[in-house]
Amino acid sequence: MQEVTLSPGMLVRHPDHPEWGLGQVQSAIGHRISVNFEHRGKQVINAQVIALLPVFEEPSPHPTSHG
User: Fold this and answer.
1) Is the Cα dihedral 60, 50, 19, 26 positive or negative?
2) Cα separation of 38 and 23, whole Å?
3) For a tag on the chain, would you pick the N or C end, based on fewer CB atoms within 10 A?
4) What is the pLDDT along the chain (67 residues), one digit of tens a residue?
C-alpha cells in the first residue's frame, strides 16, 4: 500500500472517527498533521499511528446560482 503525502489544504477523514466529519489539513510537519475537522475542530494527528483517509473530491454544500 502506497503512503499518501498530506499537504496543507488537502481534505481528509479520520478512519476511527467518521463523526468528526471532513477535515482540512492545516500543516504537516514530519509525522505531526494538524487538521481542522468540521465537528471536532483542530486536532494534531500522529501519522505514524493514524492513517488519515484523503478525500479527493471536494463537496459542494451550496448550489451555485446563475442568474
Assistant:
1) negative
2) 6
3) C
4) 446 689 999 999 999 999 999 999 999 999 999 999 999 999 999 999 999 999 987 556 665 556 5
State whether residue 65 is helix, strand or coil. Answer: coil
Do 35 and 23 meet the contact criterion of CB atoms below 8 Å apart? yes
Question: What does the domain layout of the chain look like in residue ranges?
Answer: 11-55
Measured between alpha carbons, how far is 37 from 41 in angstroms, rounded to an integer?
Answer: 5
> CA 34, CA 8: separation in Å to the nearest integer?
9
The span from the CA of 28 to the CA of 45, in Å, is 9
* Residue 50 grid coordinates: 493514524
